[in-house]
Amino acid sequence: MPLVSVDGVKIGYSEHGEGEPVLMVMGTGSPGHVWELHQVPALVRAGYRVITFDNRGIAPLAYGAPKPTVEDIVGDVVGLIRYVCGGRAHLIGTSMGAHVVQEVLVAHPELAASAVLMATRGRQDAFRTALADAEARLYASGVQPPPLYTATAKALQSLSPHTLNDEAAVRTWLDLLELFPPPLEVLRAQTLLESIGDRLGAYRTIAARCMVLAFADDLITPPHLNREVADAIAGCRYELVERCGHFGYLERPDAVNALLLDFLDGISTIHDERRMRAHEFPAKTRT
C-alpha cells in the first residue's frame, strides 16, 4: 500500500483504475476497503480512478496519541487530493465520511469537482446525540461487548427491516458482523467523531455540484436529516433509495451505483472525451 505524508502523518491509500480521480471517505469504524466490495469496481468499469484510504483511528494509535478529530481527517482528505489526486477530485463520503467531505467543501471549495454525500446530516438531533454519547461512554469504559451483541445491535441500527426480516439475508449479515467486529480501540478512537454541531448555515456557502443520497430505512441518519443538507446546498440533487438502511451502499449496491454513475457522468464528459480533456485534472503526483 503506498503512503503519502500529510502534516507529518503517513496515510496509506489504495488506487484503482484510470481516469478522473474519485476519492472515497468511509464512515465511523469501517476501513476504506469496504468500498471495494461494490462501489470501486463499478466506478473503475465506468472509467474513473478511485482512491480509498483508512480514516485515522482504524489503524492502532500510538500510545498516548490524541484521538482523531474531524478536522484531522479533513486535513488528510485535503492532503490526498493535493498529493495523490493532482489537486482536484470528485468526493464521495458516507455517514461520518460525508460530514468530512462537507467540511472540505466549506474550507477548500477549489479541491472538489463534485461531491456525493450518503447517509449524511448537518446537525445532530436529540436521539442521535444520545446514541453517540451512549456509545462513546460504553467504549470508553473498556467493556468489550460480546461479538454477537455487537453484531445484532449494529444490524438493528444499520439494516432495513426488509433485510432483517429476510431469514437468509440477515443470517449472512449477522455472521459477517460477528466475524469481523470493529476492535475496541477503533471504536474508542472514532465514536466521538459522530458528534457534530449545527453546520447547516455553513453548508449554505457550498458551491460545488452535490448529490445527497438518503436511505429510506436509515435510523442513524434518517432521510429528513439528509434532506436538510440537500436543502442547504444550492442546486443540490437529492435521491432517496428505498428498502435499505444506513448500510444502503452495501444493502442495495446496484441502485446506489446507478445513482453515483448517473450523477458523475452528468458532470464529467463521456468516456472518450474524458481522456482527451485529462488536462482538467492535473496528473497524479507522489511524495
From TrEMBL:
InterPro entries: AB_hydrolase, AB_hydrolase_1, AB_hydrolase_fold. This is Alpha/beta hydrolase. Residues 27-258 form the AB hydrolase-1 domain. It holds the Pfam family Abhydrolase_6. It comes from Actinocrinis puniceicyclus. Keywords: Hydrolase. GO terms for molecular function: hydrolase activity. Gene3D superfamilies: alpha/beta hydrolase.
